[in-house]
């Protein structure tokens, strides 16, 4: 959407087409595990259907793309329909990592609007829930479910939530945030099976859950890019600071990219909404013939109960953490090789 809007703002009459596998109108994804699941944000659409008509952007929804022919410069969809292109942007995002245990298909994912609707409806009739995974989405979803009056438990293999991303010190404080929100956290535990009544841990312990949510992470969907012969590395599509891939007039943005960031001075992976939107803007400008580079500092926000966590930077798992507690939360600064590489601010809402 960001790329299409940006290109259209520079070229009013060149045809712009969006092909999407999702049957819904383009929507904001961060609120799915925040406001929408909590019942505070019913409308997630980025634009109305009329907006696409007024801006002459053709939106084709619910379509499966079979392949990209970079030589012929065309995209082929299911049924053999050929869509020629002058410039092409790949923004295929990520797919959820399935919970590969017996009964794992009973766990509900939370990635798409359809997922969020299904989970929200299931929560209406649930007394208990289990969230498998202690990452950002898992923590947000668990806090929302607890806020709806559902007795919620997180089960995660790490000792504390968000440990791999932010470290143990921050994770210990997140446990307290979750507890304040009514969420029980079971760390250093692995799910052996999912049943209709909850989950069974490898220790044999059972955790009740009328609803089980699989928040076991995502994997960039680079299948089309790889099949088209684009250069990839570590499961991501390699792009420069202008979002150009190795193929002529083909760009990539969002979760799938290993993109050079001018400010970081290196290629970085960033699987967050703000960065994806900014990369789309850069790709749109580049395709339109305007100078643009990805130079914004990466960042995202997370809501856990009454707390909002704001992160900026590119810290690595081996970065050291300096944490300072405050009355309304805490601050953490991450350092690597003697320089600051990330900051995290956790702040309780004023109403709390």
Automatic annotation (TrEMBL):
Residues 2-280 form the FAD/NAD(P)-binding domain. GO terms for cellular component: cytoplasm. Its EC number is 1.18.1.3. This is Anthranilate 1,2-dioxygenase system ferredoxin--NAD(+) reductase component. It is an enzyme of class 1 (oxidoreductase). Keywords: Dioxygenase, FAD, Flavoprotein, Oxidoreductase. InterPro entries: FAD-oxidoreductase/Apoptosis (IPR050446), FAD/NAD-bd_sf (IPR036188), FAD/NAD-binding_dom (IPR023753). The gene is andAa. Gene3D superfamilies: FAD/NAD(P)-binding domain. GO terms for molecular function: dioxygenase activity; ferredoxin-NAD+ reductase activity; oxidoreductase activity, acting on NAD(P)H. It holds the Pfam family Pyr_redox_2. Its cofactor is FAD.
């Amino acid at each position: 959407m960001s790329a299409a809007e940006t290109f259209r703002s520079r070229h009013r009459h060149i045809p712009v087409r969006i092909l999407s596998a999702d049957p819904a109108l383009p929507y904001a994804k961060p609120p799915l595990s925040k406001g929408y699941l909590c019942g505070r944000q019913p409308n997630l659409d980025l634009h109305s259907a009329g907006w696409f008509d007024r801006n002459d952007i053709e939106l084709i929804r619910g379509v499966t793309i079979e392949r990209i022919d970079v030589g012929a410069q065309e995209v082929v969809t299911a049924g053999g329909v050929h869509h020629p292109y002058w410039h092409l942007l790949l923004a295929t995002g990520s797919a959820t990592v399935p919970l590969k245990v017996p009964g794992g298909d009973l766990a509900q994912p939370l990635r798409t609007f359809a997922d969020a609707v299904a989970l929200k409806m299931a929560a209406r009739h649930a007394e208990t829930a289990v969230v498998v995974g202690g990452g950002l989405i898992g923590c947000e979803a668990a806090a929302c479910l607890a806020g709806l009056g559902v007795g919620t438990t997180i089960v995660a293999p790490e000792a504390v939530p968000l440990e791999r991303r932010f470290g143990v010190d921050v994770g210990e404080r997140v446990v307290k945030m979750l507890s304040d929100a009514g969420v029980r956290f079971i760390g250093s535990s692995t799910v052996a099976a999912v049943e209709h009544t909850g989950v069974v841990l490898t220790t044999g312990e059972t955790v009740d859950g009328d609803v089980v949510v699989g928040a076991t992470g995502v994997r960039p969907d680079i299948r089309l890019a790889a099949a088209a012969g684009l250069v990839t590395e570590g499961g991501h599509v390699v792009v420069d600071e202008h979002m150009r891939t190795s193929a002529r007039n083909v760009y990539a943005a969002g979760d799938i990219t290993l993109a050079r960031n001018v400010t970081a001075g290196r290629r970085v992976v960033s699987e967050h909404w703000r960065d994806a939107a900014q990369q789309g803007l850069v790709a749109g400008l580049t395709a339109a013939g305007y100078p643009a580079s990805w130079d914004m500092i990466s960042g995202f926000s997370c809501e856990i109960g009454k707390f909002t966590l704001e992160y900026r930077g590119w810290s690595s798992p081996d970065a050291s953490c300096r944490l300072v507690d405050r009355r309304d939360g805490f601050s953490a600064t991450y350092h690597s090789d003697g320089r600051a590489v990330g900051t995290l601010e956790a702040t309780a809402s004023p109403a709390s």
